[in-house]
């Protein structure tokens, strides 16, 4: 069976009837039943219902009832409808808009109270996205109708509602570009013709004010108090700078601003306000009288009020606070300030001085000047935060839920594939790359691999020195220059090998070798002696003998007395001498022709006198080199007056 | 007037015209300058309106005292008194109506006249000056009726109590004498410096400023400025002002006083100094309040400068007139 056709008009009438029924009976049940009964798909029914509701509202409004309760109940009905899902979400807002457009302001107040009360509903998910633009437009329309000075409270309520409804970072509510309200012009009498004094003529007559001289109707009546026009004009001109701070960056305007500010602040400084009890009483009277506080959106700039304004502490606070706000803007970093808006040093200096003066003046204003000043300072400091927030483009304050707070599911520990770790059947470790795998699998265990024999790269002494030993054999008649030990490369390697393998390397020797080759030759000979006797003994023998002879002769020489003289002073000998010398080493130093510098060095080097003596001898040995013989030292000692020590030396 | 003369100028006396629209000021060069207050206070005032409309030499010596009657301006200088017609002055006519001098004992010295005061009941003028005496002249006839003798040193200042018919005089000798002008006798003589509260021996004992208001009298100078109750002839409050005061006035419920110091002192009857309002001249000699006109009701002060400060609101200096 095909679904019956949806007839718009019929449906609308039914809905209208149902709505009225619901209104009268204060229940939405029949409303719902009708909806469910009617044929047609959801969307069609919804839109029809919307229309119906609006039509009913229109009817109600036209009836010109005094109470808004009917309207409100209708709107409640529509809200219910939305929650039930039979009505589209924008309908309540449309209805509200219609109502507010058609009603006078005093009734709008009541409707708005309803709006305020249901702010939680508007913020709930189903309503918010659909309705926020409507609400914004509705509130703006209302604001436009209201006067800021007459309906201050209502305007405030609307603003507060908007603030509650939208998040802080809602772009439509922000002054992203830090623009100023340039329309806020303060009007004052710049010259006599504009003077409102003449216009006040009739008013004053009525009030019975005392007049000086009454002129004709045509002439403006002179005021009854002397007026300082100079101050008046300069004072109100300042308001223009507060209105548009960008002017301050222009040099000429700045000069004017500076001059006028200085004069005005001088007046404030000179004209101190007293903390009279009378003014406090007046304030209390005002409050208790229950009179409405009137809010002046703009300054009253009549000349006659100048004196009174100057003596009013709230007025002063306003002006001084304006200064502080202006200075904060001029100093601050604002993203949208053009690059030409920079203050130079003089201006900055003036600003700092004036800021101090302003704070001082604020503190002097009774009542509670100090508290007020600290409060102002605090507020301006917090303003900096807002300023930087704006500079960043007003990021949202809502903290994003961090993504990793999802409950961590315990992960199953999966077995690593055995193959991978080399625990598999072929015990091969896969490195992910064929070449690497091959290399790695040469030997799994690194330590073992390092210990293997084919990593032994260092040759044995026999191998390396074989050739050298051969060459050292004098029987081979190898000339010096062809000896392999002369090769510097060979020599270096030889040294390294000796240091790794041969104990001879570490034995101290008194022999002075003129070159590496000579040293190596002697080492080679020593080695040859130790080597296993594979080599033909004769070669070795001759070499050995020679060497031995040499060695023996050397030894012998050292035992012969004439030989002694040529022998270089040994370490041991030096120790003995040092011990014997003790603190008298300085005399020997003179004898040894040590320079004063060196002597001083020795003194600073060590505290111990024995050590110092030793150092002296070492220094002498260094200097003399091959001439540091026993003979020389003995003669030096004798000359220095240490014959006994000389004898001991000679005897050893 | 060259700049040097301007630098050394001192304004000693001031007087407002009977209509209240003009101010006459006398300086140490013997000149009197007439300023138009109405133009200086008007909305389109400029530099020129702060200059005198008329300046003329009135006396050979400094003009220490100026006084206005209903029609005339009386000026005293160099031992003589001159009278000028205000209407003539506003028309820039500087011919004196009359000039008279009191009879001094010796014709050799010419004592200066420091103060003048008018007794409206008897239409007489009392002048006090350097010869230690107060001469009383009848304004109609111009005859010097009587001499009040008693001060041992020159007379600084005079004041009058009309109801009681008393003239008060303060002098260099430190006494404030209350005279009955009919009898010409001293009724009371108060030696202010003898009162411990007021006395400031470091400054001296002279009385340079004297003013009365019904029951009260203000006097000061060497001793501190003090408020006296005339019935009981005792000081009720002493004002802690640092310099020596040269002129004081009662104004509404305040006491305004000028003297040494670059400020106008506002004091309360209780003896406390409410505020010190800074002004241009470094030291002030004269203070005048224009009670003759409501729309030009300003306070003007002058002193050791060629500038006369005008206060539209008592608490700050609005602008300055200059010689």
UniProtKB/TrEMBL annotation, chain A:
Biased composition, class Basic and acidic residues, residue ranges: 398-407, 415-424
Name of the featured protein: Death domain-containing protein
SUPFAM superfamilies the UniProt entry points to: DEATH domain
Example GO BP: mRNA export from nucleus
Region named Disordered: 193-219, 397-424, 536-566
Organism name: Aldrovandia affinis
Gene3D superfamilies in alphabetical order: Death Domain, Fas
InterPro entries, sorted: DEATH-like_dom_sf, Death_dom, THO_THOC1
Domain of life: Eukaryota
Domain Death, residue spans: 570-652
UniProtKB/TrEMBL annotation, chain B:
Cellular component aspect of the GO annotation: THO complex; transcription export complex
UniProt key word Chaperone: no
Gene3D superfamilies named in the record: YVTN repeat-like/Quinoprotein amine dehydrogenase (2.130.10.10)
WD repeats: 148-189
Single Gene Ontology BP annotation: mRNA export from nucleus
A Pfam family hit: WD40
PANTHER family assigned to the protein according to its UniProt record, in alphabetical order: THO COMPLEX SUBUNIT 6 HOMOLOG (PTHR44411)
Name assigned to this protein: THO complex subunit 6
């Amino acid at each position: 069976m095909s679904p019956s056709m949806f007839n718009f008009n019929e449906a609308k009438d039914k809905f209208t009837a149902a709505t009225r029924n619901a209104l009268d009976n204060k229940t939405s049940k029949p409303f719902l039943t009708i909806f469910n009964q009617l044929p047609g798909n959801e969307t069609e029914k919804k839109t029809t219902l919307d229309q119906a509701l609006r039509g009913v509202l229109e009817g109600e409004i036209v009836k010109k009832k005094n109470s808004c309760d009917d309207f409100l109940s209708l709107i409640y009905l529509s809200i219910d409808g939305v929650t039930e899902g039979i009505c589209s979400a924008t309908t309540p807002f449309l209805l509200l808009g219609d109502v507010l457009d058609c009603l006078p302001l005093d009734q709008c107040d009541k409707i708005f109270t309803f709006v305020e009360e249901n702010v939680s509903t508007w913020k709930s998910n189903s309503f918010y996205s659909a309705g926020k633009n409507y609400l914004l437009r509705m509130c703006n329309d209302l604001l436009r109708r209201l006067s800021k000075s007459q309906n201050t409270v209502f305007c405030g309520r609307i603003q507060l509602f908007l603030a509650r409804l939208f998040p802080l970072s809602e772009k439509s509510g922000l002054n992203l570009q830090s623009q100023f309200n340039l329309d806020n012009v303060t009007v004052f009498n710049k010259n006599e013709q504009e003077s409102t004094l003449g216009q006040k003529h009739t008013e004053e007559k009525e009030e019975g004010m005392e007049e000086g001289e009454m002129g004709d109707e045509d002439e403006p009546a002179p005021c009854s108090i002397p007026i300082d026009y100079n101050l008046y004009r300069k004072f109100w001109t300042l308001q223009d700078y507060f209105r548009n701070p960008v002017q301050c960056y222009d040099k000429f305007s700045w000069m004017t601003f500076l001059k006028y500010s200085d004069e005005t602040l001088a007046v404030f400084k000179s004209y101190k306000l007293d903390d009279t009890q009378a003014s406090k009483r007046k304030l209390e009277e005002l409050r208790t009288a229950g009179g409405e506080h009137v809010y002046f959106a703009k300054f009253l700039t009549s000349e006659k009020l100048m004196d009174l304004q100057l003596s009013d502490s709230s007025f002063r606070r306003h002006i001084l606070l304006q200064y502080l706000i202006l200075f904060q803007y001029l100093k601050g970093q604002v993203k949208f300030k053009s690059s030409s808006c920079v203050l130079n040093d003089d201006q900055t200096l003036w600003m700092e001085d004036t800021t101090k003066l302003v704070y001082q003046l604020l503190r002097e204003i009774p009542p509670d000047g100090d508290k007020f000043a600290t409060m102002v300072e605090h507020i301006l400091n917090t303003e900096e935060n807002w300023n930087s927030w704006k500079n960043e483009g007003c990021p949202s304050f809502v903290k994003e839920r961090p993504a990793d707070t999802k409950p961590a599911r315990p992960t199953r520990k999966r077995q690593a594939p055995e193959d991978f770790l080399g625990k598999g059947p072929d015990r091969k470790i896969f490195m992910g790359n064929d070449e690497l795998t091959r290399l790695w699998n040469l030997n799994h265990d690194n330590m073992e691999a390092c210990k293997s024999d084919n990593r032994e790269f260092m040759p044995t002494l026999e191998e390396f020195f074989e050739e050298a030993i051969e060459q050292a054999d004098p029987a081979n008649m190898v000339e010096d220059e062809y000896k392999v030990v002369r090769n510097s490369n060979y020599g270096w390697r030889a040294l390294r090998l000796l240091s790794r393998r041969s104990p001879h390397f570490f034995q101290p020797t008194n022999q002075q070798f003129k070159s590496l080759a000579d040293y190596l030759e002697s080492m080679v000979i020593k080695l040859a002696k130790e080597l296993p006797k594979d080599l033909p003994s004769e070669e070795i023998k001759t070499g050995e003998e020679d060497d031995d002879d040499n060695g023996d002769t050397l030894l012998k020489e050292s035992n012969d007395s004439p030989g002694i003289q040529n022998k270089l002073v040994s370490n041991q000998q030096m120790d003995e001498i040092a011990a014997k010398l003790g603190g008298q080493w300085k005399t020997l130093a003179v004898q040894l022709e040590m320079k004063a510098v060196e002597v001083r060095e020795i003194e600073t080097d060590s505290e111990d006198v024995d050590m110092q003596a030793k150092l002296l001898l070492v220094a002498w040995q260094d200097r003399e080199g091959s001439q540091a013989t026993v003979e020389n030292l003995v003669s030096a000692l004798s000359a220095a007056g240490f014959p006994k020590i000389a004898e001991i030396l000679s005897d050893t | 007037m060259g700049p040097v003369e301007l630098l050394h100028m001192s304004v000693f006396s001031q007087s407002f015209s009977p209509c209240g629209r003009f101010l006459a000021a006398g300086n140490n060069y013997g000149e009197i300058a007439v300023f138009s207050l109405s133009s200086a206070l008007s909305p389109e005032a400029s530099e020129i309106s702060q200059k005198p409309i008329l300046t003329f030499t009135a006396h050979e010596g400094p003009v220490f005292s100026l006084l206005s009657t209903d029609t005339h301006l009386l000026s005293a200088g160099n031992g003589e008194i001159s009278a000028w017609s205000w209407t003539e002055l506003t028309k820039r006519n500087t011919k004196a109506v009359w000039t008279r001098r009191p009879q001094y004992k010796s014709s050799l010295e010419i004592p200066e006249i420091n103060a003048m005061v008018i007794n409206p009941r008897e239409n007489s003028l009392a002048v006090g000056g350097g010869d230690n005496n107060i001469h009383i002249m009848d304004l109609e006839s111009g005859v010097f009726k009587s001499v009040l003798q008693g001060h041992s040193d020159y007379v600084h200042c005079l004041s009058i109590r009309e109801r009681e018919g008393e003239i008060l005089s303060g002098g260099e000798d430190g006494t404030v004498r209350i005279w009955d002008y009919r009898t010409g006798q001293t009724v009371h003589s108060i030696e202010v410096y003898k009162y411990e509260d007021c006395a400031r021996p470091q400054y001296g004992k002279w009385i340079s400023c004297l003013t009365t208001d019904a029951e009260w009298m203000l006097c000061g100078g060497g001793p501190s400025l003090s408020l006296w109750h005339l019935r009981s002839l005792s000081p009720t409050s002493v004002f802690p002002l640092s310099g020596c005061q040269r002129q004081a006035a009662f104004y509404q419920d305040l006491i305004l006083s000028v003297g040494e110091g670059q400020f106008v002192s506002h004091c309360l009857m209780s003896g406390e100094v409410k505020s010190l309002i800074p002004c241009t001249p470094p030291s002030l000699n004269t203070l005048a309040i224009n009670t003759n006109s409501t729309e030009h009701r300003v306070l003007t002060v002058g002193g050791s400068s060629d500038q006369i400060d005008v206060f539209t609101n008592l608490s700050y200096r609005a602008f300055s007139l200059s010689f």
